Amino acid sequence: MSESETRLTGATLDGPSRVTIRLNRRVPVAEWPISRFSLKTSEGVAVPVRSVEPVFPRSEQTTTFSLETAEPIDFVQHLYEVWVVGAGSRLVSVRDVLLDRDRYFDGEVRLGYTFSTEQTTFRVFAPTAAGVEVVIADEVKGDAGLAAHPMQPIGKGIWEATVGGNLEGKYYAYRLRGIGFNPQDEVGDIYATCAQGTNPRTLIVDMAKTDPPGFRDRRYTNPPSVVDVVVYEMHVRDFTISRSSGASHRGKFLGLAESGTHLPEDPSVKTGLDHLVELGVTHVQLMPVFDFDNQEGRDGEYNWGYMPVYLNSPDGWYASSATGPARVRELKQAIHALHERGIGVIMDVVYNHTAKISPFERLVPHYYFRKTSSDRFYNGSGCGNEFMSEAPMARKFIIDSLKTWLQEYQVDGFRFDLMGLHDVETLQELATELRRIRPDVLLWGEPWVGGPTPLKPISGKEQVRGTGIACFNDRFRDAIKGDRDGGGPGFIQAGERKDGVRLGLEGSIHDWAVEPTEVINYFECHDNLTAWDKLVQTCPEASEAELEQMARFAALLLFTAQGGVFMHCGQEFGRSKRGHWNTYNLPDAINQVDWSLKKRRARLFEYYRGLIALRKAHPVFRIRQRAEIESRVWFGGVPHERCLAHIIHAEGYEGEPAIAIVLLYNAHDAAVEFTLGDGVWSIHADAERAGLESLGTVEHRVTVPARSGVMLIR
C-alpha cells in the first residue's frame, strides 16, 4: 500500500490539550514526524502543536497518534480541524475530554426542573454550548405565551435559570448556541417528567397533585429475597385491549387498575387485576411504560416500547389522554391499584440505547453514546446505538432516572433490558444508591447484548455476580423447551438437554451462579415464540390435550427450581401469537391476550395457580444459600434415560412443613414407573392437577404418564 492511500479516519479531543488522531492503516512511526501534523480553527487560525507521539506502537508502527497543543483548546468557541500531510484532514470531535470528572461532573446537582408555585428552576448539562436559554410557552407548539429566559453557567458544564411565578401547565424546552448548534432549534430536556408526544416541549407538572388518594400511605413490601418472587410480565395494552378482557378502559393504565372484570360471556372467569390476584403472583413486570418513539394518539399503531425517548416520563399511549398530565396520574393509579391488592410492580427499563428522536445527542454531541473514531454509533443494542453508561453524567442520568421511578412512582424494582451493555461499575453504583433509598428493591436484567460492542467485558453473568443484581437464566429456559425460535426441542418434548434442566433445578449454582439469589428462572417472555407456539412448532402432530400436558410439565419444572420465578402474561393458559416470534410491531390481533383461553384451558390455569400456592407454602423451593442447596437438593437414579428424580431433603428447614419432597419428571413418550423410598407419600401434583390439597397417596412405586411429572410430599 502506498503512502498516498493512507487516510485520516478520526480526530477526537480527548483532553484539554490532547487530540487523538487515527489512520486507516499502520504506518512507520519514523516517517510521520511532528512536521506532518497541524491544527487550525475553522477560521484558518493555526494552533501551536507542542508534540505528536505514537500511541501503543508495535514494531515501530502505529495507527494512532496523540497530538498535544501548547495551550488548552477552546472547543466551546471554535471548531478545529486536523491536517496530516499524506492523509488528509478531519474535523475534531469533542469526545473524551468531557469524561474528566473534575471538570464536567456534579453528582449532587438536581437536573431538569425543580417546581414550586412561586418559581421553577431549570438546570441542564450542556458543556459544549456557548449559551443556553430555556423557552417557556403556553402551548406545546407555536408562539402563544412564548418567552425565552437566558441560563447561566454554574460550573461543571451545567446551566441554570430560575423563572418566577407558577409555571404549572406551561411547556418548556431548551435552545443552545455555539459550535454545532442551531440557536433556533428547540431541544427537549432528557430529564423531562411529562412528555407530550414527539414534541421537544414537555409539560411542567406539579407532581404532588398527580398522586391518587393514599398513594404515599400504603407501600408494598417486597419479599425477603428474590427467590420468593413470582413475576408476571405484561404489556399494558395487551393485557386488556381484547374485548374478552371485559375492561372498560381497554389497553390503558386504567384498565390495569380495574377490579371486577371478567370474561363477558362467563362472569365466573376473572380477568385483569382480579385474575392476577387469583393466580397468586407476587409482582407484575410492566414492559416499557416510559415515553417511547410512537404516535401516542393513534390506536392503529402497535409497539412494545423498547425505543426510549423521555425516560423519566410515562408514555401517553396508555393514558386516557395523550395530552396533559393524564399519563402521570393514571400510571400512579395503576401502581396504586396493584399495591392495594398485594402485588408489587417491576419496571422494565431500557437505558442501553435510545430512539433517534431522543434529545441526548442534540444536547451534548458525542457524549451519551459509544462511537467509533469516525463518529459512527456503535450498535451493541441492535437498535441503532448504545448508551455510554461509563460517561459520568450518563451514569448519573441512569441513577437519577431510577430514583425518580422508585421515589415518585413507588415502583418496587427494575428489570434492565440488555444489561450486558451497562458497565459493571454503573451497575454496582446504581444498586448501592437504590438500596440506600429502599433496601428491599428488586433488581435483575438480561446479561447479554444485541450485537458487537466496544464495552469489554460486557456485563454478562460472570461479571454481574456479587452485585446484588440477578440475571435471567436463559440456559434453563432453553433446556426446558428447546431453541427459542424454531429449531430443536427441549426436555419437555423429547427428553433432551436433561443436564441443563438438572443444573437449573439446583439454581444454576453448578453452572454459572454463585448463589440462587442471582437467578431468575423462566421459559417464556415477550421475546421469541410463546411456549405454546414452541410446543406446536416442535410437536406438530400433538393433540390439544398433549400440548396442555407438556405445558403443565414445563410449569412443574419452573416452579420447583431454585431461584426467582418469572412468567409471561397468558403463559398460564397457553397464550399464542400465531407462531410469530417477534411481535414488537404486529397488531393487536396477534399480541392481545385472549381471555377466552382461560376458560378453554382452565385445567392449565388451575395447575399454575396450584404450583404458585405450593411454592409459597414450601420454603425449600426458595432456598437462599448455595450451601443449603448442596446439602438438601440431589438427584436419584431413574428407570429411563429421559427421566429425572429430583429429591429435596426438607426436614429442619426453617418454616418448612414437609420432611421430604420428591419430584419425578418423565420426558419419555410413554409412561414410566418409578420406585419410591419407604413410607406413604402424598401427591400434590400429577400430570393434570396441582395444589395444596392432597390428590391421594402412594407407597413403594408410582407411574408417571408420558411428558409429565409428579410432586410427592412426606
What does this structure look like?
The protein is of the alpha+beta class. The protein contains 18 helices and 35 strands. The chain has an eight-stranded parallel beta barrel. Helix 14 (544-559) packs parallel to helix 17 (602-617). The longest helix is centred in the middle third of the chain and has 17 residues, at 392-408. The radius of gyration is 29 Å and the shape is globular. The model has no long low-confidence stretch (mean pLDDT 97).
What labels describe this entry?
714 residues; eight-stranded parallel barrel; globular
In short:
The protein is an alpha+beta fold and 714 residues long.
What is the count of DSSP helices, taking H or I runs of 4+ residues?
18
Head-to-tail CA distance between termini: 78 Å
Cα radius of gyration in angstroms: 29 Å
Query: Overall pLDDT, averaged?
Result: 97
**Approximate helicity band:** 10-25%
Give the beta-strand count: 35
Strands in their spatial order, largest beta sheet: 18-21-24-25-26-27-28-29
Name the shape in a single word: globular
Structural class: alpha+beta
Q: Low-confidence stretches at least 5 residues in length (pLDDT < 50)?
A: none
Element layout with pairings:
Layout: E1 8-15, E2 18-28, E3 37-41, E4 46-47, E5 49-54, E6 61-69, E7 80-84, E8 88-91, E9 93-94, H1 101-104, E10 112-115, E11 119-125, E12 131-137, E13 147-150, E14 152-155, E15 158-164, E16 171-177, E17 202-203, E18 230-234, H2 236-240, H3 253-257, E19 262-263, E20 266-270, H4 272-279, E21 283-286, E22 290-292, E23 308-314, H5 326-340, E24 344-349, H6 360-363, H7 392-408, E25 413-416, H8 424-437, E26 442-445, H9 461-464, E27 470-472, H10 474-481, H11 491-494, H12 498-505, E28 519-521, H13 531-538, H14 544-559, E29 564-568, H15 588-591, H16 596-600, H17 602-617, H18 626-632, E30 633-636, E31 643-649, E32 660-666, E33 672-685, E34 697-704, E35 708-713
Helix pairs in contact: 7-8, 10-12, 14-17
